[in-house]
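Researcher: Here's a chain I'd like modeled. Treat it as a single chain, no partners, no ligands.
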Amino acid sequence: MSRRVLLAAAAVVLAVVPFYADTSLLQMGLFVCAATIGAIGLNLLSGVAGQLSLGHAFFLAVGAYGYVALAGTDDRIGLGLPTWLAALLAPALAGLAGLAFSPISSRLRGLYLGVATLALVYIGQHVLYSATDLTGGYDGRPTPRLSLFGLKFGDDSGITVFNVPLGQYELLWYLGVVLAALAWWFARGVVAGRPGRGLQAVRDGEVPAAVMGVAVRRAKTSAFVLSSVYAGVAGVLYALIVGRVVPDSFGLTMSIDYLAMAVLGGMGVVGGSAVGAAIVTGLPLLLGRYVDALPLLAEPGSGGVDPSSFARYLYGALVIVLMIFEPDGLAAVARRVRGLLPAPPAVRTHPSTTPHPRGGRP
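Model: Modeled as a single isolated chain. Structure tokens:
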């Protein structure tokens, strides 16, 4: 089966999901879409450019709170901009935050860069808890509902298709799928083009890359800014899904989760980010949905192993196994499996119908 047929079939399946899935499943899928966008951005930075970052949660927070502050009309600081404009400007704010950090990120690498980005998370947490007039402090801020081209992303949208009313999460589902697909498409273009080859050269060695004519600092800055914009988009989508942003969501745990997504899917493999996001983000939600039917699991707070902790044990063990046996992640495992499958038979043309290079018979 050709790749185009598979993509078309996947598009059809994704298009009909809101007509059959309930709200919790749609929320689960939306969280995976948001995580996929953020994981692709981190993979471009860490997997393609080779720059370790532990501060991805900071840029998601900039995107989420940027949207809330730009579109907010509550008693906190807010500009009251149209929500569609705020959704465009918030990722730009995250990109500007990445650009502001680039003088540091372009001069550091490896563990030193990881520690520097880790400081962003602690600084961001302090600001989110302290700047109560802007962030709402511990209680957070409500997320204004998105309105795009007159279409309100809420239960009062007034849209009905095949006698199925499309509410907030149904409309957000289509938005999240489109954004994740665009993020994947753009990242693949970056990796396959000249910028991607430059970033890979920086990853393999900064001195050889400079000798080959790559502007190392500019390439590292570009990777950091692009990764920050991706995180900002993921932050905006996350804020729209949860309906209220709180500082606890954007801690070190979120940064570690995104790094685990990139590692599980395969560092430097754009499509692998979606697989890693599905495992790290979707697995705890899926286990929580069916906690009553699964043995060894208990409701949160009941004293047993809750679904979230159990999921962390599972994908933590998976990370260890992959690092030992297949450091390139699940993408490399998929390539190995495809290599074991028999190749499709070649279509051979009858000799009498094969044109001769000089126009005569063979």
